[in-house]
Design goal:
The chain is mostly helical and 269 residues long. The protein has 13 helices and three strands.
């Protein structure tokens, strides 16, 4: 009964801000964006929020906690087929996965400390398991939504499973190749190299080699599509351009030029 009564409450903007843990300015900004409008506005101009706004704000904050941008959240919540229960199940699954990764990272640090103190001996695999989970979680938080939208849950989950089953040596080799690739891209952009040039072709091939660690087979269409996403999505662009602007676009152009050369019979590796 108490819960039913609580659901029909109305909140002034100040009380609502206190309830959900954001500022009044944030609520006004969300109203301007059309992301969260008040239930009604009084004749005196005061915003009033109700049960529906509580539920919508909860979804907004859950998506924000997962790293989703405001414009993307608006598109998700306003989609005709939006299912609140299904969204909550996805949130729960993502949070449980994050919890599992954090627990494994804590265990790794704890065991490493015990090894440092001479209590136990750790295998190479044990030393990297927690770090691997942390890396997977960071990538899911940063790029999971876009990757799942582009390729579907199945391929993304298969990639995660492949990475989790990877040996410590292979995982380390993949990360080393990633650093080598980024360093090569930065050097090529700073030197003014052309995406059609020999260095660019080598970098495109190296990128495919890096992808193969987690993808297995790298189809040309999928490779090109991912390279396009690097430029189309700001978060992917920021990853490659964090030190030298233009790396994401150079890689995209290099990948396309490499395949065009291969398909034309002019070589390309």
């Amino acid at each position: 009964m108490d819960k039913a009564v609580d659901r029909v409450k109305e909140y002034t903007v100040g009380r609502f801000a206190q309830l959900v843990g954001v500022s009044v300015r944030t609520l006004r900004y969300y109203d301007e964006l059309g992301l969260l409008r008040p239930r009604r506005v009084t004749d005196a101009g005061y915003r009033v929020y109700g049960a529906a706004e509580v539920d919508r704000m909860q979804q907004i904050l859950l998506y924000r906690a997962m790293g989703v941008g405001l414009s993307a959240i608006a598109q998700i919540l306003d989609a005709p087929d939006f299912d609140r229960r299904a969204a909550l199940r996805r949130h729960l699954a993502a949070l449980e996965e994050r919890q599992r990764g954090t627990a494994l990272l804590i265990q790794t640090v704890r065991q490493t400390l015990r090894e440092e103190e001479g209590e136990i001996a750790m295998s190479d695999l044990e030393k990297f398991e927690g770090l691997k989970e942390s890396w997977l979680r960071e990538n899911e938080d940063a790029y999971g939504k876009e990757a799942r939208a582009a390729y579907g849950d199945g391929p993304v989950n298969e990639t995660a499973a492949l990475l989790r089953g990877m040996s410590a040596e292979r995982f380390a080799a993949m990360r080393a190749l990633e650093k080598e690739l980024l360093a090569g891209l930065e050097a090529a952009v700073l030197a003014g190299k052309l995406p059609e040039g020999e260095e660019a072709r080598a970098l495109a091939a190296k990128h495919r080699e890096w992808l193969a660690y987690s993808w297995g087979t790298v189809a040309p269409a999928a490779h090109r599509g991912l390279a396009d996403i690097y430029v189309r999505d700001a978060r992917f662009t920021a990853c490659y351009d964090r030190s030298v602007p233009g790396c994401a676009r150079f890689l995209r152009d290099a990948v396309h030029a490499w395949y065009e050369m291969k398909e034309s019979g002019r070589g390309g590796g």
